[in-house]
Recover the amino acids of this structure.
């Protein structure tokens, strides 16, 4: 049994409330017909709005709100239901940034948009693509062909803007998931808030997506609840306050996150276990959910070796079983299926698999991690506020 209820597994709530439903909710509020479907959440609260800002705070999980309230009166008021409307929804799977951002921006589960792992193997070439550092092949528009929420909104006359660090503007991930939006560079929480408010004023209807990574970064390097983490919460809360203070009367703010986080206390270092590489052609994913690509005929040998190594700290399951469990959504395209490992190492509690070839050395030392199925990683907030 997990040591905390927040470490129990939480399945993605496709069709009733996941990150993939946030943009369909925004589009519905703006009267935009969507190709991708999706559930519409907080419908009554958004009735009649003509401008929507979606603020995503990286790593700001639902079960972290109580701790985060220590650093911000606004976060405390959100957590206690004193302002706006707060609902827990779930991330998509794996609960990591590129998968989540793609699910948000496209309004579809990973099984459809195909950005289905932090790192995956490209079926045609055998190369690994790390979506967060994507530069070059595969071609982003081909790899992720689904229409984005911004393409759908702009086609309907909505002014669409992404407010984020300009360094991300030309990356493969941006080309794959933010097509259809103009880019407004901003780094600090104050800049992001000012940019979001300015972008909301564009056109007769507007959709603004704003992103801040600070809480996630602090959690990775210093841990959840650390002084550095609380300082990061206080800083990003300034963005919430700034947007609220400038929110037009016909606008709404949707606040959400891409995932939560756990403080890792136990690690399996693959670079210290060469026996685990026998029959394994590539290891991808991230520390909390690894993808193992096995050599032909070696799947069962790999399964046995890795099961012995992880014991009860992780579950080893096959690709088809993960798909059958609905982790990637009710539909998984053939191209998406081919990108998933033959075996998945799904970490439980506060365990991680690190020391994988090709990853920067500091990744193995990260304290806060995510990607798994615990409630601490999967539960995220959806908070709406309007004038």
């Amino acid at each position: 049994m997990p040591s905390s209820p927040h470490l129990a597994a939480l399945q993605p709530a496709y069709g009733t409330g996941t990150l993939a439903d946030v943009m369909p909710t925004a589009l519905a509020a703006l009267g935009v017909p969507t190709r991708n479907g999706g559930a519409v959440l907080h419908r009554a609260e958004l009735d009649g709005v003509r401008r929507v800002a979606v603020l995503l705070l990286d790593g700001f999980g639902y079960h972290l709100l109580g701790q985060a309230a220590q650093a911000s009166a606004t976060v405390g008021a959100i957590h206690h239901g004193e302002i706006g409307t707060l609902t827990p929804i779930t991330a998509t799977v794996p609960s990591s940034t590129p998968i989540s951002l793609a699910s948000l921006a496209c309004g579809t589960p990973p099984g459809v948009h195909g950005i289905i792992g932090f790192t995956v193997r490209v079926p045609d070439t055998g190369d690994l693509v790390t979506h967060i550092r994507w530069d070059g092949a595969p071609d982003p528009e081909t790899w992720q062909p689904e229409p984005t929420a911004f393409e759908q909104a702009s086609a309907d006359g909505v002014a669409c803007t992404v407010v984020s660090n300009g360094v991300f503007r030309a990356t493969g991930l941006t080309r794959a998931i933010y097509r259809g939006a103009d880019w407004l560079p901003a780094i600090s929480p104050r800049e992001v808030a000012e940019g979001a408010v300015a972008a909301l004023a564009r056109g007769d209807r507007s959709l603004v997506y704003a992103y801040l990574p600070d809480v996630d970064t602090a959690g990775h390097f210093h841990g959840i609840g650390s002084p550095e983490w609380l300082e990061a919460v206080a800083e990003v809360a300034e963005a919430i306050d700034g947007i609220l203070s400038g929110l037009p009367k016909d606008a709404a703010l949707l606040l959400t996150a891409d995932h939560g986080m756990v403080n890792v206390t136990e690690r399996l270092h693959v670079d210290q276990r060469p026996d685990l590489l026998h029959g394994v052609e590539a290891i991808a994913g991230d520390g909390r959910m690894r993808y193992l690509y096995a050599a032909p005929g070696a799947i069962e040998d790999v399964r046995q070796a890795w099961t012995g190594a992880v014991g009860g700290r992780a579950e080893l399951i096959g690709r088809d079983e993960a798909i059958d469990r609905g982790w990637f959504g009710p539909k998984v395209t053939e191209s998406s299926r081919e990108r998933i490992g033959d075996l998945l190492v799904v970490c439980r509690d506060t365990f991680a698999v690190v020391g994988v070839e090709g990853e920067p050395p500091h990744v193995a030392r990260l304290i806060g991690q995510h990607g798994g199925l615990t409630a601490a990683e999967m539960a995220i907030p959806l908070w709406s506020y309007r004038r």
Q: What stands out?
A: DSSP finds 16 helices and 17 strands in the chain. The chain has two domains: 5-262+374-386, 266-368.
